[in-house]
Amino acid sequence: MITKGEILQTIEMIDQQHLDIRTITMGISLRECTHPDVGECCRKIYDKITRCAEKLVETGEQIEREYGIPIVNKRISVTPIAQVAGSCETEDYVPFAHTLDRAARAVGVNFIGGFSALVHKGFTCGDKKLIRAIPEALSTTERVCSSVNVATTRAGINMDAVAEMGRVIKKTAELTAESQGFGCSKLVVFANAVEDNPFMAGAFHGEGEGECVINVGVSGPGVVYHALKACKGLPFDEVAETVKKTAFKITRMGQLVAQVASKRLGVPFGVVDLSLAPTPAIGDSVADILEEMGLESVGAHGTTAALALLNDAVKKGGVMASSHVGGLSGAFIPVSEDAGMIRAAEKGYLSLEKLEAMTCVCSVGLDMIAIPGDTSAETISAIIADEAAIGVVNNKTTAVRIIPVPGKGVGERVDFGGLFGSAPIMPVHPCSSAGFIARGGRIPAPLNSLKN
Known about the structure:
43% of the residues lie in helices and 18% in strands. By secondary structure, the chain is an alpha/beta fold. The strands form 2 sheets. Strands 1, 2, 3, 4, 5, 6, 7, 8, 9, 10, 11 and 14 form a 12-stranded mixed β-sheet that branches. Strands 12-13 form a two-stranded antiparallel sheet. Strand 10, helix 14 (377-394) and strand 11 form a beta-alpha-beta unit. The longest helix is centred in the middle third of the chain and has 30 residues, at 236-265. It is globular and about 65 Å long.
């Protein structure tokens, strides 16, 4: 039985501590949409998406009204388009992005993810065409998100793909220079990408997924921060227990929304992704949580240890609350989307190198980081390679969503607005990595990949 006290506590979390459902994401398989003719293939894709997601936004809004739970975004993820478009006799994959954009507008979702390719062990012809199309696709659409998986623990790191993605990111920034390189905010480069991630920009509907599924992403940094205020001076055992219990409560709310949405839409429930995804709003910051543990500022020595505790406790609480916790589930550290991270970066307390260290223990990787527009493609590729290495060796998901802002340098600021927030332009290491990236080939899988 749900008690009156629990109901009042949840209301307080929503009203005062920024608790929300960050996204309901419908995953849709497009494997039946293949066709040699690009026009026919695009028509089948559009029809499938609009048919399956016709009532997604309406249902989300109904649940919001009935339960009083904010649902910030309604989104769609689809089968990686490189796998669908590979059947078509065309060199240009941009029309597929336009089709996804039209379908997203038609059903009213915020974003659609899946203009994606999985190239961790090599390229198919379709993969190469899709990657070439990414800059134009993201510069000529509004709601389409793209991702490329360049490494796995099992396969190692495809360094040819890593090199290419540095060039793709640079070109995407150049083609969206009028919006300060905003196209790059819709592009993620992964190692060990997961198939059921509901969060953008990296969501896609994986090969092992069913025909259609509902995944829910929950967020609650403000709730965790508030709970830790009662732990001042207490040992870390009690801090971890408090985070775990708070994550349990947040996940239960997410499971409720997921189950209701699943039933009303007639679509199977997939996973709850319990990720502490911050926003630029004051009081909704992962950095604030870390500082509440006793750090003067995020970025200080001890930050990585504090983040490790937080990430682990969040996962433990979530798993206790639901048998179907998935996606990424942990703590996100996007710089431009977290008020505390922005503050620390502006003061010089948080560097790119420290963020890289933090990604060893958090959910994803280097996220929403603005760097000088004149940063070379090879340097961006080297940043991707470092993150991929962390993911491959530690058997975890890592990612890079980085924005070389055209015309801006260190110390200047970029403002993307809304949930994307703002950020100072952070310095990158001045030494060249061009010779390293030029080698190409594949960095072999680590020994810990041989588990059979």
